[in-house]
Input
Amino acid sequence: MFTELNSILNTSPDSYTRGEFILVSDRQSDASFLIHHFLSFYLRARCKVCFLGLAQSFCHYSAVSQRLGVSLTQAKEKGQLVFFEGLKECLSVLTPKENNVESEAMNFLRDPPVGLRSLYEFVRSSVIGSDNMEEGAEQWGPSVLLVDDLSVLLSLGVDVGAVLDFSHYCRALVCSQVQGNMVMLVRCNGEEDDDDDDDDDGDIGSDVLLKGLTHQCNLNLHVQGLPTGYCKDIHGQMEVCWKRRQGDAPHMQKNLFQYKVYDKGASFFARGTSSAVL
Amino acid sequence: MAAPVNSVCKTSADRLQVNCTSFQKKTRSKLISIPGTRPSVQNGQLLVSTGVTSLDYLLGGGLAVGTVLLIEEDRFDSYSRMILKYFLAEGVVCRHELFVATAQDNPDEILQELPAPILDDVAVPKPVEQPRLTGEPQDILDAMKIAWRYQNLPKVQSALASSSRFGHYYDVSKTMEVEIRQAAKCHRFYLPDHITPSSSYSALLKSLQEVIHREGFDLATPMSKSRNILRVGLHSLGSALWGDDLCCHDKPRHSHALTTFLYGLRALLRSSLSVAVVTLPSHLIQDRALMGNITRLCDNAIALESFKGSERETNPLYKDYHGLLYVRQVPHLNCLARQLPDHKDLAFKLKRKQFTIERLHLPPDLSETVSRVSRGEPVGVASACGSSASGTKNLDF
Output
């Protein structure tokens, strides 16, 4: 949990808005450090977390969370965290063996046009299933869904429309029905303004996904490299964009920060106030 | 900084995690010491050498076990193939097992071209020594007459069980001797031998998983005394010979075949003691977004651009180098921070005994007003007098 980011977003593990869809996106950069922040944030806030870790192995998330002060193995044992390890489950589909049961949630690998229905069923069972708890189990806060990351699904051949449907279903389930929060990571590649129309399909796919999700979200954290080039001390810039409705008019507020990622956290500062410069 | 990682491992896992990845050092009570590996000083990862010491330095000490290094090939696949051969040769010298997969040349051809290691302490299987013909006792022959003070020092072992150095040097003008090469176990995958109805990438993935499982590189298998590393070298993935149309069309139809394979490769590597080097002809792939997806699914990524055949070959700025090297991606493994390179303008040079990667230095700008010393600059100064020799620069009017 990055304390500076908490003060920027005006949240804390004790008080945070519910029913929010937070979109973390990046362009030619890596915003996965923000996913680690939200994971440790919601675990500390005693929420019930469903984490779809598609990009990396469980040990990676566990090691990073250890440095941020949260133990994923303990959370899993206590039932606070439901962890879906995409790398492990995909092998059962990509290299099927006779006696191994295929993972249901990743069956889109076998047949991409099927879509992400099974993955949604998995999310639904872990979010809704928590309500029918047996007596004596610990009471956790509202459910939170974290996805790292959606662009891996595009790389695995899933259609952009299917991913948008999946995010819509999850949002309806988590944000509206259960009044929990949802955090998703989307990664883009190309330049923002593409003038040529005969562009690549892949690029259009992730851009379409980003635009669709930006429209749906309440809070967008967009991470990019510095416009002036590569710098070892400042790792990039982050744009925070709130979408709030005040009265009838939607209100959008944007802030721009630069950041540097350390071993145990990240620091955010206004443009030009990096410790390397001052 | 291995000590802090040790304490972290102890507090977090009270029982040994069986399904952990190869990143975490399994050092609760017994140290895994696999020859040819060393823990990283930054975050305690297990590292292997790529065979090129300057590339090891660029990657933060070495290639972490369980990761993929993507090399975007240069135009004629000369230097990327060279790095792949260095990687495999390092595996032979460190007694690791090899897995080579190609679609174009037979894997044996690549293995026969491995460069010869230079060091003396590389294990060479010696032929059985002939018994001494004379009956003289050994100590009289071995007694030193001049340097007798060094008599009692231990003798240098010329045939070690395993090479304990990390990173070796190779002589590219010679190929590795057959005895050394055949001492290493090598698994081959030659695509024309595996004609399957499914895609060639899934056949490769299944073959790799079968090798990992059969030879015991899986982390799930019970810990035995000796573990080894599997070095996987995949040559020219994504080229048309793998049954992919990534290089043929602007908008390929099955663009996710290669990315799905890379995802499965990452899953296999994270759960076993293996490390992979993949070369990819990225100059044939028109779709830049697809290259971005491919790069994100690999951990380390570098790109080579050689000067051969381009006009830069004769450019005096680049006369000391053979090509440029770009670092496309550096991973963050088990920690938040990455080890970013200091400089982004790197150039490489292949010398006979070393493949050096260094910061691109422009040669000093020697104009006539600054210095009269002429180093025979290839930039011909066409003097107005029309004289041909370059030494007349000092006499320009």
Notes: The first strand of chain B starts at residue 37 and ends at 39.
